[in-house]
Automatic annotation (TrEMBL):
<keyword id="KW-0677">Repeat</keyword>
<dbReference type="GO" id="GO:0005634">
    <property type="term" value="C:nucleus"/>
</dbReference>
<dbReference type="GO" id="GO:0006325">
    <property type="term" value="P:chromatin organization"/>
</dbReference>
<dbReference type="InterPro" id="IPR001611">
    <property type="entry name" value="Leu-rich_rpt"/>
</dbReference>
<feature type="region of interest" description="Disordered">
    <location>
        <begin position="149"/>
        <end position="230"/>
    </location>
</feature>
<keyword id="KW-0143">Chaperone</keyword>
<dbReference type="Pfam" id="PF14580">
    <property type="entry name" value="LRR_9"/>
</dbReference>
<keyword id="KW-0963">Cytoplasm</keyword>
<comment type="similarity">
    <text>Belongs to the ANP32 family.</text>
</comment>
<comment type="function">
    <text>Multifunctional protein that is involved in the regulation of many processes.</text>
</comment>
<dbReference type="InterPro" id="IPR003603">
    <property type="entry name" value="U2A'_phosphoprotein32A_C"/>
</dbReference>
<protein>
    <recommendedName>
        <fullName>Acidic leucine-rich nuclear phosphoprotein 32 family member</fullName>
    </recommendedName>
</protein>
<feature type="compositionally biased region" description="Acidic residues">
    <location>
        <begin position="178"/>
        <end position="190"/>
    </location>
</feature>
<feature type="compositionally biased region" description="Basic and acidic residues">
    <location>
        <begin position="200"/>
        <end position="218"/>
    </location>
</feature>
<feature type="compositionally biased region" description="Acidic residues">
    <location>
        <begin position="149"/>
        <end position="171"/>
    </location>
</feature>
<dbReference type="GO" id="GO:0042393">
    <property type="term" value="F:histone binding"/>
</dbReference>
<dbReference type="InterPro" id="IPR045081">
    <property type="entry name" value="AN32"/>
</dbReference>
Amino acid sequence: MEMKKRISLELRNRTPAEVAELVVDNCRSSDGEIEGLTDEFKELEFLSMVNVGLTSLAKLPTLPKLRKLELSDNNILGSLETLAEKSANLTYLNLSGNKIKELMMVQLLHSQTNLKSLDLFNCEITTLEDYRESIFELLPQVTYLDGFDAEDNEAPDSEADDDDDDEDGEEGAGQLGDYEEEEEDEEGSEGGEVGLSYLMKEDIQEADVQGEKRKRDAEDEGEDDDEDDD
């Protein structure tokens, strides 16, 4: 599907000014340029154009509120200076899997003063000697490169939320386990009471049988004594 048509469909009866997030991944751009995206998208904060065949960002409209831009798996060679001109508030930029080869291409992002996270994974530039050190030196405003800071500490993301969910899940599981144990204890207690009652009942019945037997034996002995007297 062409990018222009895809953007039109993604509007879903909204005006461009009402859209804060726009995802047009895997559509097709004409001649490697952005199409269908205009200055009317003034409230746009998140834009994802993954694998759309882009080679240039020259036609990127002015997006003053754009903070996160996903451009991975395209064929972008340059024109990164456009980002500083059109999206000055950008804090996250993903250019992984593009044709970024030289440091001078990345240096064009120097004026992107709000940029905190940059991803160049799977770009040819990552094979350069002292790649990470060079990027952090060229772009001192960047805190995280390819998901890690200069000290190799991983960038915070949704994993923290997942860990919290796991902890909640463990607590929930413990509470459920305690509840199940209580049920088992109750069942065990009831079972013990039933078993004890049953054994007591058996003992009583056995005592009754033995008592009857002794009574009959005594009567039989009494009859024998009467016969002997006669």
